[in-house]
Design brief:
The protein is mostly helical. It contains 17 helices and no strands. It has two domains: 182 residues, no CATH class; 210 residues, no CATH class. Helix 2 crosses helix 6, helix 3 runs parallel beside helix 5 and helix 4 packs antiparallel against helix 5. The mean pLDDT is 90.
């Protein structure tokens, strides 16, 4: 079920009314309703894959209980590996089976040996990369004794399948989200209005910015050989805004929807395109995944401690694995490696934590130096996004080759004036709201009420007016 669909517009009010006005007297009933609603939400896409969520839920629930009963460290580790193998086994089969098989055949062909093997027509379950990592974090934290295992199966099932963030995150930690299912929740009007406001901004990002950028991105990338270098640059910039509007828009809708039901999810994007270097960008982009890899892979590998060779190894591992998490294609691996190359000099010179505060925290607008740093960081990020968007490595290299010629200095052949106006409006609002969790959280609170209402209505009208190019969420494929 898509957030930007009529189905969800009907589904959400029904669940909301049942949750607060029918099942509100008993916490267990509320949690059971969330499980049921989440399975309907997910099963709307393909009910057959509910069995994967159910199986993963039961495995990690039982593993958690058994680990708490087991005092022998070796046996506890065996239980942890059962959880890891089950979850990553599902992920590996559905997402990477054909990729590894194809590359295995290609490798033997290179040495003159032909292997006959058939790929499988595998449907990738929506959101499998997200909920497997979410439930894995529970097992790992229980193993590390950072979290007491739950005996409440309904609460645990609700944590694993919580519909606002089930399909594309944020990837919640059990330490944050699971305890919220144990506590009595009462309706909070202010929190609900805040949730609706964040949903509104998320819909604007997705339906106005991302979906309208997608039209031009698809045209330019699919016919890159027909366009000038300047037009190809424009296509790459549009994709940068498309993927940000699409993914952060989903996160905003998810976080806002969760708030309607009394839950607090972690911030997943913190205005990443205002970053002054790549290290800051990765602290602000897809925060739930970045911190997941940091805590469960990078730090266990040794992190930034040890010799320079180990630090370099760890950086490349974390970025390449992050790239591979996104999909079974060499383009994602190259994208990850490029970001590692960007990040490594900052880490080795101890400049990776130079920008921890909010950009231009004491001024309304950025200084010239800050603006230059933001533009350089955005340029490097956009360059890497070309590999992320390309169909394959050859496509990406041809696209880059098209940029690197004299036509780069020409006027772009595609000049969507209306989209540029929308992007200027979008960037301005994001900049003004950069100190908050999302751009319009408190923006306009000092304005007179009529003016503030006009601002919200302008956003609503813009959503309906420009909702002509409905696109599925990009991260559904991951």
């Amino acid at each position: 079920m898509l957030f930007n669909s009529l189905d969800f517009a009907i589904f959400l009010p029904i669940v909301f009314i049942l949750y607060w006005f029918v099942f509100n007297k008993h916490l267990k009933n509320q949690n059971a309703l969330i499980v049921l609603a989440s399975y309907v939400f997910y099963g709307w896409w393909d009910w057959r894959f509910l069995s994967l969520i159910l199986f993963s839920t039961m495995v990690d629930y039982i593993v958690g209980l058994k680990m708490s009963e087991q005092k022998n460290q070796k046996k506890r580790k065996v239980l942890l590996w059962i959880s890891i193998c089950v979850n990553l086994g599902f992920l590996g089969f559905f997402k990477y089976y054909n990729f590894f098989l194809d590359n295995f055949i290609t490798a033997f062909s290179f040495f003159g040996t032909e292997i006959q093997a058939n790929t499988l027509n595998i449907i990738l379950p929506v959101g499998i990369s997200f909920y497997t990592f979410q439930t894995l974090s529970y097992s790992i934290d229980v193993y590390r004794k950072k979290l007491e295992p739950t005996k409440n199966l309904i609460a645990f099932a609700a944590f694993v399948s919580f519909f606002p963030q089930l399909v594309a995150g944020p990837i919640e930690r059990a330490t944050n989200l699971l305890p919220q299912f144990y506590k009595k929740r009462t309706f909070n009007y202010i929190k609900a209005v805040d949730g609706l406001r964040q949903i509104l901004w998320g819909l604007f990002k997705k339906m106005v910015i991302a979906d309208n950028c997608a039209v031009f991105v698809n045209t330019i990338f699919d016919n890159h050989q027909d366009y000038s270098g300047s037009t190809l640059v424009l296509g790459a910039v549009f994709f940068a805004f498309q993927i940000y509007g699409d993914f952060s828009g989903y996160s905003d809708i998810a976080i806002g929807t969760a708030r309607l039901f009394g839950f607090n999810l972690m911030q997943n994007f913190a205005f990443p395109y205002f970053s002054r270097d790549i290290a800051e960008f990765w602290r602000r982009w897809h925060i739930s995944l970045s911190t997941w890899f940091r805590d469960y892979l990078y730090i266990p590998l040794g992190g930034s401690l040890g010799s320079k060779s180990k630090v370099i190894r760890n950086v490349f591992i974390i970025f390449i694995v992050s790239g591979f998490w996104h999909g079974a294609n060499w383009t994602f691996i190259v994208w990850g490696a490029l970001n590692a190359l960007y990040f490594l000099p900052l880490l080795l010179t101890n400049k990776n934590r130079n920008h921890l505060e909010i950009v231009a925290s004491k001024s309304k607008w950025p200084s010239a130096k800050t603006l230059v740093n933001i533009l350089i960081t955005f340029g490097l990020t956009t360059l890497a996004w070309i590999f992320f968007r390309a169909e394959n490595i050859s496509h990406a290299l041809q696209y880059l080759k098209g940029i690197g010629n004299a036509s780069l200095l020409s006027i772009p052949e595609i000049r969507p004036t209306y989209l540029l106006v929308l992007l200027i409006f979008f960037i301005t609002i994001e900049w003004l709201g950069r100190r908050d969790q999302y751009a319009i959280e408190t923006l306009g609170f000092t304005w007179k009420r009529p003016l503030r209402l006009v601002f919200y209505y302008v956003i609503i009208i813009t959503i309906f007016w420009f909702n002509r190019n409905e696109q599925t969420f990009i991260y559904f494929q991951f």
